[in-house]
Amino acid sequence: MLTAILAIAALAVLFGLMLGYSAIRFHVEGDPIADQIDSLLPQTQCGQCGHPGCRPYAEAVARGDDDINKCAPGGEATILAMADLLGREPVALDAEEKLPAVAFIDPERCIGCTLCLQNCPVDAIVGAAKQLHGILSKECTGCELCLPPCPVNCISMVPVTEEISGWRWPFPSTPLKETAKSQPERAAA
Amino acid sequence: MKTFIASSPHVARVNRVDSIMLQVLLALVPGILAMIWFFGWGLLINILLAVTFAVAAECTVILARGRSPLPAIADLSAVVTAVLFAISVPPILPWWMTLLGMLFAIVLVKQLYGGMGYNPFNPAMAAYVFLLVSYPVAMTNWLTPTMLTEHHLSFTESLRIILDGSLPQGLSWDAVTSATPLDEMRGKLDRNLTMGEIRQSPLWGAFGGRGWEWVAAWFLLGGIYLLWKRIITWHIPVSLLSSLLVCATLFWAIEPQTHPFPAFHLFSGAAILGAFFIATDPVTACTTTRGQIIFGASIGALVYVIRTWGGYPDAIAFSVLLLNIAAPMIDHYTQPRVFGHGGKRG
Amino acid sequence: MAVAHSLIANRRLWTFHGGIHIPDEKSLSNGAPIAPIALPSRLVVPLQQHIGAPARVIVAVGERVLKGQMIAEPTGLVSAPVHAPSSGTLVAIESHPIPHPSGLMAPCAIIETDGEDAWAELPPPMTDYPQLDPELIRERIRWAGVVGMGGASFPTSVKLSPGTDRHIHTLIINGAECEPYISCDDRLMRERSGHIFEGVRIMHHLLGVKQVLIGIEDNKPEAIEEMRLALAETDMHTYTEIVPIPTLYPSGGEKQLIRILTGKEVPTKGIPAQVGIVCQNVGTAAAVADAVLEGRPLVSRVVTVTGRAIANPRNLEVPIGTPASDLIAHCGGYRETPRKLVCGGPMMGFALRDADTPITKATNCVLALTPEESPAPGPALACIRCGRCAQACPANLLPQQMYWHARAKDLDRVQDYNLFDCIECGCCAQVCPSHIPLVQYYRYAKTEIWSREQEKRKSEQARARHAAKQARLERQEQERQAKLRKQKEALAAKAKAQAKPETAAKQQASAASPTETANDS
Where does the secretion signal sit in this chain (chain B) (predicted)? Predict the structure, then answer.
């Protein structure tokens, strides 16, 4: 009896020491999880998740303070990627999924107030005071942060036209329907 | 004309699941006829019962899953499972055991895993093993081949035995049933009889158990038909039979008096049927070429080991199920060398 | 010499894994000679008909263009120009559906033809090319807009400049034409063999290779015979050989043909030049001869118009930009309503949504399939793991495993099973008894992976720009603070020096002023 207790105790101590040692030996600096989550986010910096940018949201998810389904621009793909990374169950998106779009400034109405310019998180708007502003549509992430400050409501979101270079084969539907489900509204745009 | 996003190829496909299954059924016919010839009408009744139960079970489960049962029935996979089960069990198995077996095979082993294509275990063999461990007596109660018995059970007599278990007037069980050749061999070897003494018995034919040898031969013919029609490839049957043959020859050569002759192993039990029709079930077997050879050879070796040293006289079902578990792992380690990826020739 | 002959006499052929035998259906269209087509009144010329950087338009809308005049110039090394296929007026540069599986639109030059078919002034023929600088010849081929005409449409001039560090020893000419139905290369070899050999001679000269192998599937005996006769008339037989190869789809795939003829395997993600081989299509060889010996750019090509829905299937010589519907009309229209109109072959081509889609440099076949030839596949059944796909796969992949992972959208695992070694030949889908659209799963996975990589790059860029903006704002804030501090210090020092006995009221006033300055900035 005594031998058994001693043996178990000895084993417990041994494993405890091993665990303690590896905690020190394999300690990881920083928060690699937040980095990894951040790399999955689309970096629109739109704040639709309720955080002031992608990085703060990633940190909140890493801490467990926020759910993984708050990123509207990332949509389902981002949720699945995060669920996969964190070993969680994928949950439905907590927002409406939107088609990718970029901002467009109506040159007739822009008064050159620079307010949108200051709000753009990725410096995708060029212009100066009293000058017509323009959007670098290649850099625009479609975050819509420029919409509210515009005093004359001259900015609108234009859906990105589907280009052949970025076209994806549709996932085969079961049973495979041969009718084209190719978003006619997008093709028309 | 309609508009399409349809991926190539654009021409008619060449194979169909249902035609493959139909070919398998067709290839089983000669062996089944031989079995009916040697063991009577009970076998046919069993097949009909098993098919009915299996199809009904499949329908019920698929309806319960809220899908249309027709495509699943039309692929004939349940029929193949039922037929394979019915020819593996004794021809006078009580009907409720067949029902139990089919429910086990279709509901538990096949549909609960997702249905056709998703089951990790061969449904017919799983049901066979389930019944064998639950009802060992009934499952080893084989009929005596017709040439060794006075009384030949008629269709109605067989039906009565299967339905309510009652023997015809004036007949005892001993008169119609006997041990299978593998059972006989095992029992006598356990009693330290030599091979020469064992072979005195009228149970033995030219190269296997009397009757059994011809059943196996007709199944072999069906198997060759499947190979010819390219329904199956040679890898699993050839590796299975050669590995069994190699094991049998080796031990027989060392000690011919205590080990059965090699042909006995091939032609007395379910080895041929197993090699061509059971182990080749694509869903549960290995898919890589090298994997299939390992798969077949392992089954062959296991069959010999269990027959010789294990607790059961025949072992096709156990060996196939054991290798079913190992199949994904074997597949993983036997991936072929992809075109353009250095290394050795694949 | 004797060595070369004995080598030729006993040429060994290699095999590749898998492949399938399918009815070749070539007799539908290979009987009649290549026929010209009436010039259409409107040509729709896509501005990108090649792999690589798009071409830049150099002609203004409304201008008159002549046949063979360059209307868009190449941008970058891997690029190709586009020429006017006939004379007329460039009426617009606009989006128009192009031959692509998506059916999407791309910029095209719309030319209204004037019916004169007047040639522009062409560069002089280079009949003395052996004496010329190879760079000049390559420049000519590049100018002529020659691209791979077997379907890949890779700029030929780039393929013919393998660089000095790579030793190219073999030129393979692909006349296999393994896809069913298609017979344009077959007819080309039968009717224009001399022309093909001229092109081969030029490419042989450019590459400096030891041997030229022309692989032709043995279901084209007339083409083999004609090419052999034509070869015997030239002095090229010392280094060139016509090699009949067994008919087995897809032996016309570049990597498969190289394997059959030389036993060499092009390494994964690699190109044939890595094993010392360059592979060109017979049509490309003819286009090279046109460009070098006649100074003619690539403005037309031979297209097979076939399928049982076509009244008179045959091969046509078609100006680039002709709508597919014109070709069908020229072949007597439809015999019956087709279920599918396919661009390319039945195994690898794609369905056209619109019969007005123009012919491009890469279009080798317009295929109208009847419902009997191309029945609706019906619902796919579950995979039964029968392994027929793996037996048929010419790349020796495990298609069923790739299917599981593609279906689960597990893009990493699909790549573990070497998705990108898949050549999309369609053998697996063709033999699948469960009728699973396997190739579409792989295409879905490939395009999804590419587009995710693209998105990833975009988000990296956005992250960098965001970080740059944050840094800039921070720097500006620091600069403002520093300025403020400096001004404060300066004022304080001034006040101290000027009037020590002054009252506190003055100090208060000076403290207020820097805030104003900051607001102004």
Answer: none
